[in-house]
Design a protein that fits this description.
This protein is of the alpha+beta class. The protein folds into 2 domains: 31-97 and 192-209, Alpha-Beta Plaits (2-Layer Sandwich); 99-191, Alpha-Beta Plaits, CATH 3.30.70. Helices cover 12% and strands 26% of the residues. The chain is built from 3 helices and 11 strands; from the N terminus they run E-E-E-H-E-H-E-E-E-E-H-E-E-E. The strands form 2 sheets. Strands 1, 2, 3, 4, 7, 8, 9, 10 and 11 form a 9-stranded mixed β-sheet that branches. The two termini are 28 Å apart.
């Protein structure tokens, strides 16, 4: 559209979509991106579908945003939501190999061989996992889980930081089980450059895309 009927493009003010001459301009608003700390037991969807579990609608009152990827009901941590389909695909589609970092509490204490197996990739029923980053870490400072993790007094537990670049179903749990260390607690901490830092469980904030 030309300004005041001319061939020069309209100059919109900010994201108002209105030219300085008063004419409407066709601006592309910036996509919204929400970083949500999903608590344990919350469904990764807005509809209840007959379930009695809480959903995203209990926490996020923002219209027209949808999860970019999923996080299992029994997992916690960072879930990204957006109103932009292209951004949703860039975050969630495995072909973009967006790194996802998890803090994982496991049964036992993985040795060097188990960590190396996670790094190289492990064989699952639906194929071998891509190479990952895996390291043992001290217990992180996290919020208490509700309900608490059930620990066995006779079996020690430990924590890993695991970064993957794909999204097989329940992949992290299956990977740790494959090397002999079942997952007890799973917290997604980071996706790409977006982190959970400073976001309490059940809270969210907006971020730049």
């Amino acid at each position: 559209m030309g300004c005041e009927g001319s061939q020069a493009p309209c100059q919109a003010r900010g994201d108002e979509g209105v030219c300085v001459c008063g004419a409407l301009a066709y601006a592309h608003p910036m996509p919204r991106l929400i970083l949500f700390n999903k608590p344990y037991g919350v469904l990764c969807q807005f509809s209840k579908d007959g379930s009695d579990k809480p959903t995203l609608a209990n926490f996020i009152k923002v219209p027209n945003v949808y999860p970019a990827g999923r996080l299992d009901t029994d997992s916690e941590g960072l879930l990204l939501l957006t109103d932009d389909g292209r951004l949703q695909a860039r975050i969630a589609d495995p072909k973009f190999k967006q790194p996802k970092t998890y803090l994982v509490q496991v049964e036992g204490e993985p040795d060097a061989a188990a960590l190396e197996a996670l790094r190289r990739g492990v064989e699952l029923k639906d194929g071998r996992t891509r190479p990952a980053e895996a390291e043992s870490i001290p217990p992180p400072t996290l919020w208490p889980r509700d309900p608490p993790v059930r620990l066995r007094k006779t079996v020690p537990d430990s924590w890993l930081r695991l970064t993957i670049r794909e999204g097989k179903n329940r992949q992290v749990r299956r990977m740790t089980a494959a090397v002999g260390h079942p997952t007890l607690r799973l917290v997604r901490w980071q996706v790409g450059d977006w982190s959970l830092e400073g976001i309490a469980p059940g809270e969210w904030r907006e971020a730049s895309a």
